[in-house]
Amino acid sequence: MNIGAASEKSGLPAKTIRYYEDIGLLTADRASNGYRDYSMPDVHRMRFIQRSRSLGFSVEECRQLLSLYNDKQRQSADVKALANAKLKEIDKKLVELNELRDTLRRLVRSCHGDSRPDCPIIEGLSNSQLKS
User: Fold this and answer.
1) DSSP track, 20-47
2) What is the DSSP letter of 128?
3) What is the pLDDT of residues 93-106, one digit of tens each?
């Protein structure tokens, strides 16, 4: 199938598919006319990458996951280790985001939001100590 059909079946934009090919994440066969020619297993790999990316895996992590996906002798412990590392990274980001939300919430609550020029939000943003 051509890139348009592969794009439709995988849910990835053609531009993204080309990018993944450029960086070696995907490879496509070439038809006699030189156009890309994708198979259903290629589409499955595209969906695999798309789902992995949507779960926060980097391109390099996707490369590792694809390698494991293609390795029928893989050990599930290797896959689990990658997923656990990503889970820890996400948990850390969630803690950071919660701290940011709490800081911003305190700043918003402290502002009267009236016609006066005094604004604790501006003052808080100009301070180097946002956490308290």
Assistant:
1) HHHTTS---EE-TTS-EE--HHHHHHHH
2) S
3) 999 999 999 999 99
CB neighbours of residue 87 within 10 Å:
13
Gap between the Cα atoms of 78 and 80, Å rounded:
5
Task: Taking each helix axis as running N to C, give the angle between helix 59-70 and helix 40-54, from 0 to 180 degrees, rounded to the nearest 10.
Answer: 140
d(C-alpha 64, C-alpha 58), whole Å? 10
Q: Are 112 and 121 in contact (CB under 8 A)?
A: no
pLDDT value for 123: 87
Q: What is the pLDDT of residues 34-93, one digit of tens each?
A: 889 999 999 999 999 999 999 999 999 999 999 999 999 999 999 999 999 999 999 999
pTM score, two decimals?
0.77
Q: What tokens does 100 get?
A: 């940011």
Domain layout of the chain by residue ranges: 1-74, 75-132
- CATH 3.40.1180.10 assigned to domain 1-74? The reply is no
Give the 3-state DSSP-derived string for 74-106, with helices as H, strands as E and coil as C.
Answer: CCHHHHHHHHHHHHHHHHHHHHHHHHHHHHHHH
